[in-house]
Amino acid sequence: SAIRLGMMPADGIGREVLPCAQRVLQNTPGAPKFEFLQLAAGFEHFQKTGSALPDETIRALKEECDGAMFGSVSSPSHKVEGYSSPIVRLRKELDLYANIRPVIGVRGTKDDEKWVDTVIVRENTECLYVKSETSESTPEGQVARAIRQISEKASTRIGRKAFEVALARQSMREKTGATTSGNAATAKVTVCHKSNVLSVTDGLFRTSVRAVYEKDARSAGGPGRYANVTMDEQLVDSMVYRLFREPHVFDVVVAPNLYGDIISDGAAALVGSLGVVASVNAGDTFFMGEPVHGSAPDIAGQNKANPIASIRSAALLLEYMGYPEPALKIYKAVDDVLREGKYLTPDLHGSATTTQCEEAILKALGA
Ligand code: NAI
Ligand code: MG
């Protein structure tokens, strides 16, 4: 039977790029059959109905869908009464505790020595994003505080996810025969933290992730599951520095929510545009593909948006849902179009439209 995917284009360019991803999924040779359910979400839907994420969308996702794709949402930067981000709520409702963001360069377009092929595994449920903020008046003026929550449970499960991602990447590398440069040729997990300063919170994150690896190494009955994965660590500030100078040394990076958010957007700058960076929100059994970019109001409605982030997110979703072969075909078609350089959108200094870029990818797929 067909795989049912809930599609939430939401706002702005999400409505232009998510349909591209859908057509690519429908036309990838060897991909399973899909059924797509169009579901409402987003700020515009909130303005019309008072709800940014209708209960019906959540019900359909939970009861009828095997996976999902989200476009992008326009979140107002001021507080709007009754509004809360649908993406944050979706992650909670579906228990999507990991945000997995591969950042991949294009071979042959840059210095291959420093080729970027890194995945950032970001914890999605806690850290400063528990949004527990207070403010009080003092004789010296306002003082604002935020609570940062780090738990052993959430840190352990994100740690386990990171080691699983490292194994999955290793197996994809073996399938394609691709070898990456630098240390990333072997599977490695780098723990990102700042426990030299925040020894209690980041200290707990660090020891919890490390414990996943150390327990596995001590497991009885032969070599552990992660025996071929190495582990190291990096303080978040020097992580940013190294990411810019020698991105090729990183394979999988695991980070608490806020650091993960910042370093993954920063890493996107290394590969030319936010318009090519994909992500998947992962739980243990449910996955939701989502381009990293926002709704891009400056270019929305002009057929200028780069559809690649969205198309790669669809491929990631396929990969995580257990279909690596068709996912690889999509990755390769995208790489071919990027390398050829004839059908790139303006964010990559080309002059192609969204439609032309999508058509070039469909053609490269042999669709
Ligand atoms: P943004 O990602 O929407 O845009 C940043 C810049 O990158 C803009 O110049 C835009 O034109 C460009 N850009 C982004 N995606 C592109 C693509 N596919 N092709 C070509 N160019 C692209 O971030 P910004 O401007 O900070 O936020 C705009 C709105 O999006 C805000 O309401 C914000 O809250 C929301 N947002 C939503 C996210 C989500 O849905 N997960 C993530 C980030 C922002
Ligand atoms: Mg961000």
From TrEMBL:
<dbReference type="GO" id="GO:0004449">
    <property type="term" value="F:isocitrate dehydrogenase (NAD+) activity"/>
</dbReference>
<comment type="similarity">
    <text>Belongs to the isocitrate and isopropylmalate dehydrogenases family.</text>
</comment>
<dbReference type="GO" id="GO:0006099">
    <property type="term" value="P:tricarboxylic acid cycle"/>
</dbReference>
<dbReference type="GO" id="GO:0006102">
    <property type="term" value="P:isocitrate metabolic process"/>
</dbReference>
<keyword id="KW-0460">Magnesium</keyword>
<dbReference type="GO" id="GO:0051287">
    <property type="term" value="F:NAD binding"/>
</dbReference>
<dbReference type="GO" id="GO:0009085">
    <property type="term" value="P:lysine biosynthetic process"/>
</dbReference>
<dbReference type="GO" id="GO:0005739">
    <property type="term" value="C:mitochondrion"/>
</dbReference>
<dbReference type="GO" id="GO:0047046">
    <property type="term" value="F:homoisocitrate dehydrogenase activity"/>
</dbReference>
<dbReference type="InterPro" id="IPR024084">
    <property type="entry name" value="IsoPropMal-DH-like_dom"/>
</dbReference>
<protein>
    <submittedName>
        <fullName>Isocitrate/isopropylmalate dehydrogenase</fullName>
    </submittedName>
</protein>
<dbReference type="Pfam" id="PF00180">
    <property type="entry name" value="Iso_dh"/>
</dbReference>
<feature type="domain" description="Isopropylmalate dehydrogenase-like">
    <location>
        <begin position="4"/>
        <end position="361"/>
    </location>
</feature>
<dbReference type="InterPro" id="IPR019818">
    <property type="entry name" value="IsoCit/isopropylmalate_DH_CS"/>
</dbReference>
<dbReference type="GO" id="GO:0000287">
    <property type="term" value="F:magnesium ion binding"/>
</dbReference>
